[in-house]
């Protein structure tokens, strides 16, 4: 059978969803590993990563069941959900790639204000830094953070956490944006495959349909 046939569309859709299953399990596993080894202490971060992994796993399972059984309703909802995920992920990925340094600093400062004290201390210990940015706008907050800082570098001389994080922020955002764009195009491929496969007739169910 040619690649444009029913079997090829089904196998391609199944293969794509197997990849999504593996990525979802990887996200859940990495989050659990990071928590277990104390790399990330924030339950909000861990919970967010696990939720994304679980959501991706759920979509992939729906896609797999729909592809194997040629289930029209499941394939329809799979297409709708994957299309919405594509729009959201494409927008976020483009934002990551286009984010300027000044905006990165502004977002980092905003996040630092709402982060819990325990999370701040954990970041300071892991990054070996104290405080965020030593500027006039947040001088009081910076002084309070430095006074409560327990990082090893405090015995000598500490860099600010803002400087340490900004050194890698641009590179991390480019990687996240690039990976997000790549997966967003695989989602469009999944929508197209599901739409095509959904409209094809199963020759096993009705052998005379093509006559």
UniProtKB/TrEMBL annotation:
Whether Membrane counts among this entry's keywords is yes
Q: Where in the cell is it found?
A: Membrane
One Pfam entry for this protein is: Tetraspanin
> GO CC terms on record?
membrane
Matching InterPro entries:
Tetraspanin/Peripherin (IPR018499)
- Membrane-topology descriptor: Multi-pass membrane protein
- Residue ranges crossing the lipid bilayer per the database entry: 12-33, 45-68, 75-100, 175-195
The protein's UniProt keywords, in alphabetical order, are:
Membrane, Transmembrane, Transmembrane helix
Name of the featured protein: Tetraspanin 31
- Can you name the source organism? Anolis carolinensis
Q: What gene name does this entry carry? A: TSPAN31
């Amino acid at each position: 059978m040619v690649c444009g046939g029913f079997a090829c569309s089904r196998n391609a859709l199944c293969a794509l969803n197997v990849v999504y299953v593996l990525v979802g399990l990887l996200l859940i596993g990495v989050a659990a590993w990071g928590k277990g080894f104390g790399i990330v202490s924030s339950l909000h971060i861990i919970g967010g990563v696990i939720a994304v992994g679980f959501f991706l796993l759920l979509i992939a399972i729906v896609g797999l069941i729909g592809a194997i059984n040629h289930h029209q309703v499941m394939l329809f909802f799979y297409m709708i959900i994957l299309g919405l995920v594509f729009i959201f992920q494409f927008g976020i990925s483009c934002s990551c790639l286009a984010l300027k340094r000044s905006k990165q600093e502004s977002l980092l400062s905003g996040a630092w204000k709402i982060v819990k004290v325990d999370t701040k201390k954990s970041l300071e210990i892991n990054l070996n830094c104290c405080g965020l940015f030593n500027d006039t706008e947040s001088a009081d907050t910076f002084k309070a953070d430095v006074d409560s800082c327990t990082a090893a570098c405090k015995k000598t001389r500490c860099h600010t956490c803002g400087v340490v994080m900004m050194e890698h922020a641009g590179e991390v955002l480019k990687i996240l944006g690039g990976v997000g764009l790549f997966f967003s195009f695989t989602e469009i491929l999944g929508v197209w495959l599901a739409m095509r496969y959904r409209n094809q007739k199963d020759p096993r169910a009705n052998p005379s349909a093509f006559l």
